[in-house]
Amino acid sequence: MKFLRKIIKNLPSFMTALVFAVAVWIFAVTQSDPTQTRAYPSQVDLEIFGLDPNLMIVNDINDRVTLTVRAPASILDQLENDSSLITAVLDLSGLEAGVHTLTPQINISLSPAEVVRLSPATVYIKLDTVITREFPILIKMIGNPTIGFEVQEPELSAENVTISGPQTLVDSINQVLGEVSVVDASEDIQRIVDLVAYDEEGQEVEGISITPDSIEVLIPVTQRGGYRTVVVKIVTSGQIAAGYRLTNIYSMPPTVTIFSSDPTLVESIPGFIETTPINLNGASESLEIRVALNLPEGLNVVGSQNVTVQIGIEPIESSISFSNIAVQTEGLQDGLTAIISPQFVDVFLSGPLNLLEQLDPTSLLVVIDLTDRGPGTYQLAPEVILENGDVQVDAILPNTIEVTIVEGNGNQGGSITPTPTVTPTTTP
To answer: 414-418: long-range contacts (C-beta < 8 A, 24 or more apart)?
Structure first.
């Protein structure tokens, strides 16, 4: 009993001594490892988990946070040397579509340590339901084709696209477009076209997935009634100077589009339009001249009524021309008939004189290859078949032939073949 009273009597002294001892210990510890407050030197990545797979985040969020930590200096040093000791997470578990304000959770693997400042302190999250919907594909044609031509309905490799994304964005889509330029088109257009989704105001809708995001588009381009594209046939007269040869002769453009208020008149003419005659008599250098077209009455040309003819003339050993050589075809499929216009061409050759003198104009072969071609109208270049490689083909007039292939067997053309005319030119 006396001992108990003695303890109670001395209890205040014991408590004073304990407090004093703890204070001394804390002072000693803080002197050797003082508590400090520091800004963490690098931003911490914000990890997001718990998101419902049927939802998605539709707003931009800051995926890093900045921290200020209070802890003993030794712990702060460890934290700064090992970034894996601090993590920042944003828990979206159980959240539904809508707007949410969340506080990032900071986990520090060492203690004692506490976060005294966090930026951003809260994170604004907007969640939206992910949906998938089909939309028809529309093709917008930009510009206009060449005069006398018109575009038909485009043919698409796919008629619809599947779009996935936030419901608010998918619901805002008004149409899915692909754009194709048809400016100055005179033949079928085939392109790979990228697809873009637009809202009612014509603004592109981003943040969605479009499948497929591109398609193949074929736009047929046809000629209007009353219009027709024909070959320009260059007409020449006279002979170039002795000792020179014709290296090339061609028209720019090689074809022109003609039109008339009477469509039957357009269809009745052959597949070419002649130029007014070009006098080559005595020519000894290359020429580039503007030549008028010899148009039948009632016909007009789209654009300029003249063409530019380039004529290449160079010194040669010998040259010779053959007129009215029949054009033949090869490779035509069975059951088809080819109608050629014009049926006869003029051929200009050059080479050693002795070889030219041995040439028989009746054996001269001018061929158009129709392999793998079906019914239709084509502008094709004829080819002269020569047995001797030392003889060179300088030019063929016209250098483009219109060939119309139709079903059925029959004669090609129907005209009587004229007798070839030979005009030699020899170096003195």
So the answer is: 415/343, 417/324, 417/326, 417/343, 417/344, 418/324, 418/344
Exposed / middle / buried, residue 57 (Cβ in 10 Å: 0-12, 13-18, 19+): middle
DSSP letters for 347-399:
EEEES-HHHHHH--GGG-EEEEE-TT--SEEEEE--EEE-S-TTSEEEEEESS
Question: Quick check: 425 pLDDT over 80?
Answer: no
362-371 per-residue burial string, b: 16 or more CB within 10 A, e: under 16: eebebebebe
Residue 28 within any structural domain of the chain: no
Cβ neighbour number for residue 191 with a 10 Å cutoff = 17
- Has residue 381 been placed in a domain? yes
Q: Are residues 111 and 248 in the same domain?
A: no
- State the pLDDT confidence band at 2, using cuts at 50, 70 and 90: low
Cα-based angle 171, 176, 181 (whole degrees, multiple of 5): 160
Boundary-marking domain end, from 82, 103, 121: 121
Q: How many residues does the chain have?
A: 428
- pTM (2 d.p.): 0.47
222-252 burial: b if 16+ Cβ within 10 Å, else e: ebeebbbbbbbbbebeebbeeebbbbebbbe
51 and 105 co-located in one domain = yes
12 assigned to some structural domain: no
Number of folded domains that form the chain: 3
365-369 and 318-330: which strand pairing? parallel
Which range of residues forms the domain containing residue 217?
130-223
User: How many CA atoms within 13 Å lie on the side-chain side of 315?
Assistant: 2
Residue 3, pLDDT score: 54
Whether 234 and 217 share a structural domain = no
Rounded to whole angstroms, the Cα distance separating 366 from 403 reads: 14
Q: Is residue 21 a part of any domain in this protein?
A: no
Is 108 within 8 Å of 80 (Cβ atoms)? no
Residue 114 sits in a domain whose CATH number is: 2.170.120.30
